[in-house]
Amino acid sequence: MTVKNRLRRMLGRKSRFRKAVDSTDVVSTSSSATTSSLSYEDDTASTLSPASGTALEDSVDDVYSDVRETLERLAARDKARFVQNHASASSPYHEEENLMSTFIACTTYLAYATFIFVGHVRDFFAWFLGRGRFVRVASDFPGDDWSRFAPLLKSWEDFYFRRIYIRVQDAFNRPIASKPGSHIDVLERVSDDAQKSMHVLGSLDNLPPGATPEEYVNGPHFVEAPDGSVCRQCLNLGSYNYLGFADDWHVTCARDVMASLQDFSVSTSSARNEYGTTALHRQVETTVARFLGKEDAICLNMGFNTNATTIPSLVGRGDLLISDELNHTSIVNGARASGAAIRVFKHNSIIDLEATLKQAIILGRPRTRRPWNKILVIVEGIYSMEGEYCDLRGVVDVCKKYGAYIYLDEAHSIGATGATGRGCTEFAGVDTADVDILMGTFTKSFGAMGGYVAADRATIQHLRNTCAASSCHNALSPVVCQQVLTAFKVSENWLYCRVSCCAG
User: Fold this and answer.
1) CA 319 – CA 289 distance, rounded (Å)
2) Exposure of 81 in the CB half-sphere (CA atoms within 13 A)
3) CB 190 within 8 A of CB 208
4) Fewest 10 Å CB contacts: which of 93, 121, 375, 423?
Protein backbone atom coordinates (compact mmCIF):
# COMPACT_ATOMS: atom_id res chain seq x y z
CA MET A 1 0.00 0.00 0.00
CA THR A 2 1.40 3.40 -0.98
CA VAL A 3 1.92 6.24 1.47
CA LYS A 4 -0.77 8.22 -0.31
CA ASN A 5 -3.35 5.47 0.10
CA ARG A 6 -2.36 4.91 3.69
CA LEU A 7 -2.83 8.60 4.50
CA ARG A 8 -6.11 8.59 2.63
CA ARG A 9 -7.31 5.77 4.85
CA MET A 10 -6.25 7.62 8.00
CA LEU A 11 -7.50 11.07 7.10
CA GLY A 12 -10.23 10.73 4.53
CA ARG A 13 -12.79 8.69 6.41
CA LYS A 14 -16.26 10.18 6.51
CA SER A 15 -18.20 10.01 9.76
CA ARG A 16 -21.65 8.56 9.59
CA PHE A 17 -22.77 10.94 12.31
CA ARG A 18 -21.75 14.17 10.58
CA LYS A 19 -24.45 16.51 9.35
CA ALA A 20 -24.51 17.01 5.59
CA VAL A 21 -22.25 19.93 4.68
CA ASP A 22 -23.76 22.95 3.00
CA SER A 23 -22.19 26.15 1.78
CA THR A 24 -22.28 27.78 5.21
CA ASP A 25 -20.39 24.92 6.86
CA VAL A 26 -17.21 25.47 4.86
CA VAL A 27 -14.58 27.82 6.21
CA SER A 28 -12.42 29.08 3.39
CA THR A 29 -8.73 29.10 4.14
CA SER A 30 -7.26 30.73 1.08
CA SER A 31 -8.34 34.39 1.04
CA SER A 32 -6.96 35.54 4.40
CA ALA A 33 -3.41 36.12 5.56
CA THR A 34 -4.21 33.88 8.48
CA THR A 35 -4.47 30.77 6.34
CA SER A 36 -2.33 28.39 4.39
CA SER A 37 -1.66 28.91 0.71
CA LEU A 38 -3.15 25.47 0.22
CA SER A 39 -6.93 25.95 0.23
CA TYR A 40 -9.27 23.20 1.23
CA GLU A 41 -12.57 22.68 2.95
CA ASP A 42 -12.74 22.40 6.73
CA ASP A 43 -14.68 19.18 6.48
CA THR A 44 -12.30 17.09 4.41
CA ALA A 45 -14.68 14.16 4.39
CA SER A 46 -17.06 16.13 2.16
CA THR A 47 -14.58 15.77 -0.72
CA LEU A 48 -15.09 12.02 -0.77
CA SER A 49 -17.92 10.36 -2.60
CA PRO A 50 -20.49 8.50 -0.49
CA ALA A 51 -19.28 5.16 -1.78
CA SER A 52 -15.62 5.79 -1.05
CA GLY A 53 -16.49 7.23 2.35
CA THR A 54 -18.41 4.11 3.30
CA ALA A 55 -15.63 1.82 2.13
CA LEU A 56 -13.03 3.73 4.07
CA GLU A 57 -15.21 3.74 7.14
CA ASP A 58 -15.58 0.00 7.04
CA SER A 59 -11.85 -0.54 6.49
CA VAL A 60 -10.53 1.60 9.34
CA ASP A 61 -11.24 1.01 13.01
CA ASP A 62 -12.41 4.10 14.86
CA VAL A 63 -10.75 4.27 18.28
CA TYR A 64 -13.40 6.77 19.36
CA SER A 65 -16.36 4.75 18.12
CA ASP A 66 -17.94 4.57 21.58
CA VAL A 67 -18.15 8.37 21.87
CA ARG A 68 -18.07 9.38 18.20
CA GLU A 69 -21.72 10.36 18.04
CA THR A 70 -21.41 12.61 21.09
CA LEU A 71 -18.20 14.20 19.80
CA GLU A 72 -19.72 14.94 16.40
CA ARG A 73 -22.87 16.40 17.94
CA LEU A 74 -20.96 18.70 20.27
CA ALA A 75 -18.57 19.79 17.52
CA ALA A 76 -21.48 20.60 15.22
CA ARG A 77 -23.20 22.55 17.99
CA ASP A 78 -20.08 24.63 18.66
CA LYS A 79 -19.59 25.35 14.96
CA ALA A 80 -23.23 26.38 14.62
CA ARG A 81 -22.87 28.73 17.56
CA PHE A 82 -19.49 30.30 16.92
CA VAL A 83 -19.07 30.13 13.14
CA GLN A 84 -22.56 30.37 11.67
CA ASN A 85 -23.95 32.23 14.72
CA HIS A 86 -27.35 30.54 14.51
CA ALA A 87 -27.63 28.79 17.88
CA SER A 88 -31.27 29.67 18.35
CA ALA A 89 -34.02 27.61 19.92
CA SER A 90 -35.00 26.32 16.45
CA SER A 91 -31.46 25.28 15.58
CA PRO A 92 -30.93 21.50 15.34
CA TYR A 93 -27.77 22.01 17.39
CA HIS A 94 -29.38 24.05 20.15
CA GLU A 95 -28.82 22.36 23.47
CA GLU A 96 -29.20 23.53 27.02
CA GLU A 97 -26.12 23.34 29.20
CA ASN A 98 -26.03 20.38 31.57
CA LEU A 99 -26.10 22.15 34.90
CA MET A 100 -25.23 20.40 38.14
CA SER A 101 -28.31 19.08 39.91
CA THR A 102 -29.33 20.46 43.28
CA PHE A 103 -28.81 17.08 44.92
CA ILE A 104 -25.20 16.78 43.70
CA ALA A 105 -24.42 20.37 44.72
CA CYS A 106 -25.90 19.93 48.20
CA THR A 107 -24.15 16.63 48.89
CA THR A 108 -20.82 18.07 47.70
CA TYR A 109 -21.10 21.04 50.03
CA LEU A 110 -22.26 18.72 52.80
CA ALA A 111 -19.13 16.62 52.40
CA TYR A 112 -16.91 19.70 52.71
CA ALA A 113 -18.90 20.89 55.73
CA THR A 114 -18.45 17.50 57.36
CA PHE A 115 -14.70 17.61 56.75
CA ILE A 116 -14.48 21.06 58.29
CA PHE A 117 -16.64 20.20 61.29
CA VAL A 118 -14.76 16.99 62.11
CA GLY A 119 -11.45 18.82 61.62
CA HIS A 120 -12.38 21.51 64.14
CA VAL A 121 -13.54 18.87 66.63
CA ARG A 122 -10.22 17.02 66.29
CA ASP A 123 -8.29 20.28 66.67
CA PHE A 124 -10.21 21.09 69.86
CA PHE A 125 -9.48 17.73 71.48
CA ALA A 126 -5.84 17.87 70.35
CA TRP A 127 -5.51 21.28 72.06
CA PHE A 128 -7.42 20.14 75.16
CA LEU A 129 -5.52 16.86 75.63
CA GLY A 130 -2.18 18.11 74.35
CA ARG A 131 -1.91 15.13 72.01
CA GLY A 132 -2.39 14.74 68.29
CA ARG A 133 -0.70 14.32 64.94
CA PHE A 134 -0.33 18.05 64.41
CA VAL A 135 0.42 19.32 67.91
CA ARG A 136 3.61 21.37 67.80
CA VAL A 137 6.31 20.22 70.18
CA ALA A 138 8.30 22.95 71.91
CA SER A 139 11.84 23.31 70.60
CA ASP A 140 14.78 25.70 70.69
CA PHE A 141 14.29 26.60 67.04
CA PRO A 142 13.81 30.40 66.83
CA GLY A 143 10.87 30.08 64.47
CA ASP A 144 8.84 28.29 67.17
CA ASP A 145 8.94 31.36 69.38
CA TRP A 146 5.68 33.03 68.38
CA SER A 147 6.41 35.99 70.63
CA ARG A 148 9.13 36.98 68.13
CA PHE A 149 7.83 35.61 64.80
CA ALA A 150 4.41 35.76 63.21
CA PRO A 151 2.95 32.53 61.79
CA LEU A 152 3.85 31.95 58.15
CA LEU A 153 0.39 30.60 57.30
CA LYS A 154 -3.02 31.97 58.08
CA SER A 155 -5.18 29.85 60.35
CA TRP A 156 -7.53 28.70 57.56
CA GLU A 157 -4.66 27.82 55.21
CA ASP A 158 -3.04 25.71 57.90
CA PHE A 159 -6.35 24.09 58.85
CA TYR A 160 -7.19 23.23 55.23
CA PHE A 161 -3.80 21.60 54.71
CA ARG A 162 -3.92 19.57 57.93
CA ARG A 163 -7.51 18.40 57.97
CA ILE A 164 -8.62 18.28 54.32
CA TYR A 165 -5.73 18.28 51.86
CA ILE A 166 -3.60 15.67 53.64
CA ARG A 167 -6.47 13.18 53.52
CA VAL A 168 -6.42 13.22 49.70
CA GLN A 169 -2.88 14.33 48.90
CA ASP A 170 -2.01 10.91 47.48
CA ALA A 171 -4.12 11.93 44.46
CA PHE A 172 -1.91 14.95 43.71
CA ASN A 173 1.71 15.60 42.71
CA ARG A 174 2.13 12.12 41.31
CA PRO A 175 5.67 11.45 39.97
CA ILE A 176 5.86 9.56 36.69
CA ALA A 177 8.49 7.25 35.19
CA SER A 178 7.60 7.49 31.51
CA LYS A 179 6.91 10.00 28.78
CA PRO A 180 3.66 11.95 29.29
CA GLY A 181 1.88 10.28 26.39
CA SER A 182 -1.61 8.84 26.22
CA HIS A 183 -0.57 6.35 28.93
CA ILE A 184 1.81 7.06 31.78
CA ASP A 185 3.63 4.97 34.36
CA VAL A 186 2.92 6.49 37.78
CA LEU A 187 5.41 5.72 40.53
CA GLU A 188 3.85 4.01 43.51
CA ARG A 189 4.03 6.04 46.74
CA VAL A 190 3.51 5.03 50.36
CA SER A 191 3.25 6.83 53.67
CA ASP A 192 4.48 5.85 57.12
CA ASP A 193 2.75 8.65 59.02
CA ALA A 194 -0.90 8.55 57.96
CA GLN A 195 -0.26 10.57 54.78
CA LYS A 196 1.44 13.51 56.45
CA SER A 197 4.26 12.77 54.02
CA MET A 198 4.61 10.56 50.97
CA HIS A 199 7.68 8.85 49.54
CA VAL A 200 8.32 6.73 46.46
CA LEU A 201 8.14 3.01 47.19
CA GLY A 202 10.95 2.05 44.83
CA SER A 203 11.46 -1.67 44.21
CA LEU A 204 9.38 -4.48 45.65
CA ASP A 205 12.08 -5.04 48.25
CA ASN A 206 10.92 -1.87 50.03
CA LEU A 207 7.36 -2.99 50.67
CA PRO A 208 5.92 -1.85 54.02
CA PRO A 209 5.15 -4.46 56.69
CA GLY A 210 2.07 -6.50 55.91
CA ALA A 211 2.25 -6.00 52.14
CA THR A 212 3.20 -8.80 49.79
CA PRO A 213 4.76 -8.56 46.30
CA GLU A 214 1.85 -10.54 44.86
CA GLU A 215 -0.53 -7.70 45.67
CA TYR A 216 1.36 -5.53 43.20
CA VAL A 217 2.61 -8.03 40.62
CA ASN A 218 -0.82 -9.58 40.12
CA GLY A 219 -2.50 -6.22 39.73
CA PRO A 220 -3.94 -5.42 36.29
CA HIS A 221 -1.91 -2.21 35.90
CA PHE A 222 1.44 -3.23 37.41
CA VAL A 223 4.59 -2.21 35.52
CA GLU A 224 8.20 -1.64 36.47
CA ALA A 225 10.32 1.40 35.68
CA PRO A 226 13.75 0.89 34.07
CA ASP A 227 15.35 1.15 37.52
CA GLY A 228 13.01 -1.48 38.98
CA SER A 229 10.66 0.93 40.75
CA VAL A 230 7.05 -0.16 41.14
CA CYS A 231 4.69 1.74 38.84
CA ARG A 232 1.06 1.74 37.92
CA GLN A 233 0.13 2.23 34.27
CA CYS A 234 -2.64 4.79 33.97
CA LEU A 235 -4.58 6.59 31.29
CA ASN A 236 -3.19 10.12 31.04
CA LEU A 237 -5.91 12.74 31.43
CA GLY A 238 -3.71 15.37 33.04
CA SER A 239 -1.35 16.49 30.25
CA TYR A 240 -1.99 18.77 27.30
CA ASN A 241 -0.23 16.96 24.43
CA TYR A 242 -2.95 18.06 22.00
CA LEU A 243 -1.07 16.99 18.87
CA GLY A 244 0.55 13.89 20.38
CA PHE A 245 4.19 14.97 20.26
CA ALA A 246 4.80 13.37 23.66
CA ASP A 247 3.82 9.96 22.27
CA ASP A 248 6.20 9.79 19.29
CA TRP A 249 8.75 12.49 20.09
CA HIS A 250 11.68 10.19 19.30
CA VAL A 251 10.28 9.68 15.81
CA THR A 252 9.10 13.19 14.94
CA CYS A 253 11.35 15.65 16.80
CA ALA A 254 14.29 13.98 18.55
CA ARG A 255 16.82 14.19 15.72
CA ASP A 256 16.48 17.94 15.10
CA VAL A 257 16.21 18.82 18.78
CA MET A 258 19.26 16.84 19.82
CA ALA A 259 21.23 18.19 16.86
CA SER A 260 20.63 21.75 18.08
CA LEU A 261 22.85 21.00 21.07
CA GLN A 262 25.82 20.87 18.68
CA ASP A 263 25.49 24.61 18.02
CA PHE A 264 23.72 25.96 21.10
CA SER A 265 23.77 25.36 24.83
CA VAL A 266 20.79 24.23 26.87
CA SER A 267 20.44 27.72 28.31
CA THR A 268 21.66 31.15 27.21
CA SER A 269 21.92 32.21 30.88
CA SER A 270 20.81 35.68 29.93
CA ALA A 271 17.73 37.79 29.23
CA ARG A 272 16.53 38.39 25.69
CA ASN A 273 17.60 42.03 25.78
CA GLU A 274 21.17 41.11 26.72
CA TYR A 275 22.77 37.96 25.27
CA GLY A 276 19.74 35.68 25.31
CA THR A 277 18.64 36.01 21.68
CA THR A 278 19.90 33.36 19.28
CA ALA A 279 19.15 32.61 15.65
CA LEU A 280 16.65 30.00 16.81
CA HIS A 281 14.70 32.59 18.79
CA ARG A 282 14.37 34.77 15.72
CA GLN A 283 13.34 31.78 13.61
CA VAL A 284 10.59 30.93 16.09
CA GLU A 285 9.32 34.50 16.08
CA THR A 286 9.39 34.70 12.28
CA THR A 287 7.60 31.35 11.99
CA VAL A 288 4.87 32.36 14.46
CA ALA A 289 4.34 35.73 12.80
CA ARG A 290 4.08 34.12 9.36
CA PHE A 291 1.78 31.40 10.64
CA LEU A 292 -0.62 33.93 12.15
CA GLY A 293 -0.38 36.58 9.46
CA LYS A 294 1.13 39.21 11.76
CA GLU A 295 4.05 41.56 11.17
CA ASP A 296 6.15 40.33 14.10
CA ALA A 297 6.12 38.19 17.23
CA ILE A 298 8.05 37.76 20.45
CA CYS A 299 8.63 34.44 22.25
CA LEU A 300 9.00 34.27 26.03
CA ASN A 301 10.13 31.57 28.41
CA MET A 302 6.89 30.83 30.25
CA GLY A 303 3.25 30.74 29.19
CA PHE A 304 1.91 32.09 32.47
CA ASN A 305 4.40 34.95 32.47
CA THR A 306 3.50 35.84 28.90
CA ASN A 307 0.18 37.20 30.11
CA ALA A 308 1.40 38.30 33.52
CA THR A 309 4.22 40.47 32.09
CA THR A 310 2.97 41.68 28.71
CA ILE A 311 -0.38 43.06 29.87
CA PRO A 312 1.30 45.56 32.26
CA SER A 313 3.45 46.70 29.32
CA LEU A 314 0.41 47.31 27.13
CA VAL A 315 -1.87 49.18 29.52
CA GLY A 316 -1.43 51.30 32.60
CA ARG A 317 -2.88 54.16 34.56
CA GLY A 318 -5.60 55.92 32.60
CA ASP A 319 -6.42 52.81 30.53
CA LEU A 320 -9.35 50.42 30.88
CA LEU A 321 -9.23 46.62 30.77
CA ILE A 322 -12.47 44.77 30.05
CA SER A 323 -12.06 41.09 30.89
CA ASP A 324 -14.25 38.01 30.64
CA GLU A 325 -15.19 36.88 34.14
CA LEU A 326 -13.70 33.39 33.53
CA ASN A 327 -10.33 34.50 32.14
CA HIS A 328 -7.24 32.63 33.29
CA THR A 329 -5.36 33.56 36.47
CA SER A 330 -2.37 34.76 34.45
CA ILE A 331 -4.61 37.36 32.80
CA VAL A 332 -6.02 38.37 36.17
CA ASN A 333 -2.52 38.78 37.63
CA GLY A 334 -1.34 40.80 34.64
CA ALA A 335 -4.40 43.04 34.78
CA ARG A 336 -3.95 43.74 38.47
CA ALA A 337 -0.24 44.48 38.03
CA SER A 338 -0.87 46.89 35.17
CA GLY A 339 -2.46 49.65 37.24
CA ALA A 340 -5.25 50.03 34.69
CA ALA A 341 -8.91 50.16 35.68
CA ILE A 342 -10.64 46.81 35.32
CA ARG A 343 -14.21 45.97 34.33
CA VAL A 344 -15.56 42.42 34.06
CA PHE A 345 -18.35 41.22 31.76
CA LYS A 346 -20.39 38.05 31.98
CA HIS A 347 -18.80 34.99 30.47
CA ASN A 348 -19.14 34.89 26.69
CA SER A 349 -22.00 37.41 26.80
CA ILE A 350 -21.71 39.79 23.86
CA ILE A 351 -24.71 41.75 25.15
CA ASP A 352 -23.03 42.39 28.50
CA LEU A 353 -19.73 43.23 26.78
CA GLU A 354 -21.45 45.86 24.65
CA ALA A 355 -23.25 47.29 27.68
CA THR A 356 -19.94 47.47 29.59
CA LEU A 357 -18.22 49.22 26.69
CA LYS A 358 -21.08 51.70 26.32
CA GLN A 359 -21.03 52.58 29.99
CA ALA A 360 -17.23 52.92 30.02
CA ILE A 361 -17.24 55.29 27.04
CA ILE A 362 -20.15 57.40 28.31
CA LEU A 363 -18.97 57.75 31.91
CA GLY A 364 -15.23 57.86 31.27
CA ARG A 365 -12.79 57.71 34.16
CA PRO A 366 -14.04 57.85 37.75
CA ARG A 367 -14.25 61.34 39.31
CA THR A 368 -12.75 63.27 36.39
CA ARG A 369 -15.01 61.77 33.64
CA ARG A 370 -12.19 62.18 31.17
CA PRO A 371 -12.09 59.65 28.33
CA TRP A 372 -9.93 56.59 28.72
CA ASN A 373 -6.56 56.60 26.98
CA LYS A 374 -7.39 53.22 25.47
CA ILE A 375 -9.72 50.32 26.11
CA LEU A 376 -8.45 46.74 25.82
CA VAL A 377 -10.85 43.77 25.75
CA ILE A 378 -9.26 40.47 26.82
CA VAL A 379 -10.80 37.09 26.00
CA GLU A 380 -9.60 33.51 25.57
CA GLY A 381 -9.97 31.40 22.44
CA ILE A 382 -10.89 28.33 24.49
CA TYR A 383 -11.63 28.67 28.18
CA SER A 384 -9.63 25.81 29.63
CA MET A 385 -11.66 25.18 32.78
CA GLU A 386 -15.00 25.21 30.96
CA GLY A 387 -13.94 23.80 27.58
CA GLU A 388 -15.95 26.48 25.78
CA TYR A 389 -15.07 28.45 22.67
CA CYS A 390 -15.05 32.22 22.74
CA ASP A 391 -17.75 33.90 20.66
CA LEU A 392 -14.96 35.64 18.82
CA ARG A 393 -17.02 36.92 15.91
CA GLY A 394 -19.32 38.74 18.32
CA VAL A 395 -16.39 40.15 20.31
CA VAL A 396 -14.71 41.47 17.15
CA ASP A 397 -17.90 43.11 15.89
CA VAL A 398 -18.55 44.88 19.18
CA CYS A 399 -14.94 46.05 19.60
CA LYS A 400 -14.88 47.40 16.04
CA LYS A 401 -18.11 49.24 16.70
CA TYR A 402 -16.77 51.02 19.79
CA GLY A 403 -13.10 51.33 18.86
CA ALA A 404 -11.67 48.98 21.51
CA TYR A 405 -8.52 46.88 21.12
CA ILE A 406 -8.69 43.07 21.35
CA TYR A 407 -6.25 40.81 23.20
CA LEU A 408 -6.88 37.12 22.42
CA ASP A 409 -5.34 34.38 24.57
CA GLU A 410 -5.02 31.27 22.38
CA ALA A 411 -3.10 29.13 24.84
CA HIS A 412 -5.49 26.19 24.42
CA SER A 413 -6.61 26.75 20.84
CA ILE A 414 -3.48 27.43 18.79
CA GLY A 415 -2.27 24.39 16.90
CA ALA A 416 -5.28 22.20 17.65
CA THR A 417 -8.26 24.31 16.55
CA GLY A 418 -9.23 25.38 13.06
CA ALA A 419 -8.77 23.70 9.71
CA THR A 420 -5.03 24.42 9.64
CA GLY A 421 -4.44 24.75 13.38
CA ARG A 422 -4.44 28.54 13.47
CA GLY A 423 -6.67 28.65 16.48
CA CYS A 424 -9.97 30.23 17.37
CA THR A 425 -9.64 32.93 14.70
CA GLU A 426 -9.69 30.31 11.99
CA PHE A 427 -12.38 28.25 13.70
CA ALA A 428 -14.69 31.28 13.97
CA GLY A 429 -13.83 32.64 10.53
CA VAL A 430 -12.17 35.80 11.89
CA ASP A 431 -9.18 37.34 10.12
CA THR A 432 -6.23 37.78 12.48
CA ALA A 433 -5.96 41.35 11.17
CA ASP A 434 -9.14 42.05 13.17
CA VAL A 435 -7.46 40.94 16.42
CA ASP A 436 -4.86 43.43 17.62
CA ILE A 437 -2.83 41.14 19.89
CA LEU A 438 -2.59 37.35 19.64
CA MET A 439 -1.12 35.48 22.57
CA GLY A 440 -0.48 31.74 22.80
CA THR A 441 1.71 29.09 24.36
CA PHE A 442 3.93 26.30 23.05
CA THR A 443 3.08 23.90 25.89
CA LYS A 444 -0.26 22.56 24.71
CA SER A 445 0.10 21.67 21.03
CA PHE A 446 3.82 21.86 20.30
CA GLY A 447 5.31 19.69 23.03
CA ALA A 448 7.51 22.50 24.33
CA MET A 449 7.29 25.37 26.82
CA GLY A 450 7.01 29.14 26.78
CA GLY A 451 4.64 31.52 25.03
CA TYR A 452 4.42 34.13 22.31
CA VAL A 453 2.74 37.42 21.48
CA ALA A 454 2.05 38.33 17.83
CA ALA A 455 1.02 41.82 16.74
CA ASP A 456 2.16 44.70 14.55
CA ARG A 457 5.85 45.49 14.47
CA ALA A 458 5.63 48.62 16.65
CA THR A 459 3.77 46.78 19.43
CA ILE A 460 6.26 43.90 19.47
CA GLN A 461 9.20 46.28 19.58
CA HIS A 462 7.57 48.04 22.53
CA LEU A 463 7.21 44.71 24.32
CA ARG A 464 10.85 43.80 23.66
CA ASN A 465 11.92 47.01 25.37
CA THR A 466 9.48 47.13 28.29
CA CYS A 467 8.16 43.62 29.01
CA ALA A 468 9.74 42.11 32.12
CA ALA A 469 9.81 38.64 30.56
CA SER A 470 12.02 40.03 27.79
CA SER A 471 14.22 42.45 29.69
CA CYS A 472 14.61 40.62 33.02
CA HIS A 473 13.76 36.92 32.74
CA ASN A 474 16.04 34.25 31.36
CA ALA A 475 15.48 33.61 27.65
CA LEU A 476 13.69 30.57 26.31
CA SER A 477 16.08 27.65 25.93
CA PRO A 478 17.45 27.25 22.38
CA VAL A 479 16.67 23.53 22.60
CA VAL A 480 13.03 24.38 23.28
CA CYS A 481 13.06 26.80 20.36
CA GLN A 482 14.18 23.96 18.10
CA GLN A 483 11.37 21.78 19.45
CA VAL A 484 8.86 24.49 18.50
CA LEU A 485 10.33 24.84 15.01
CA THR A 486 10.31 21.08 14.44
CA ALA A 487 6.73 20.81 15.69
CA PHE A 488 5.68 23.49 13.21
CA LYS A 489 7.49 21.64 10.41
CA VAL A 490 5.89 18.31 11.28
CA SER A 491 2.44 19.90 11.48
CA GLU A 492 2.83 21.64 8.12
CA ASN A 493 4.08 18.43 6.46
CA TRP A 494 1.10 16.52 7.86
CA LEU A 495 -1.23 19.24 6.63
CA TYR A 496 0.33 19.10 3.16
CA CYS A 497 -0.18 15.34 3.03
CA ARG A 498 -3.75 15.75 4.19
CA VAL A 499 -4.53 18.29 1.49
CA SER A 500 -2.77 16.25 -1.21
CA CYS A 501 -4.63 13.06 -0.32
CA CYS A 502 -8.03 14.73 -0.08
CA ALA A 503 -7.49 16.67 -3.31
CA GLY A 504 -6.16 13.64 -5.15
Assistant:
1) 27
2) 19
3) yes
4) 121
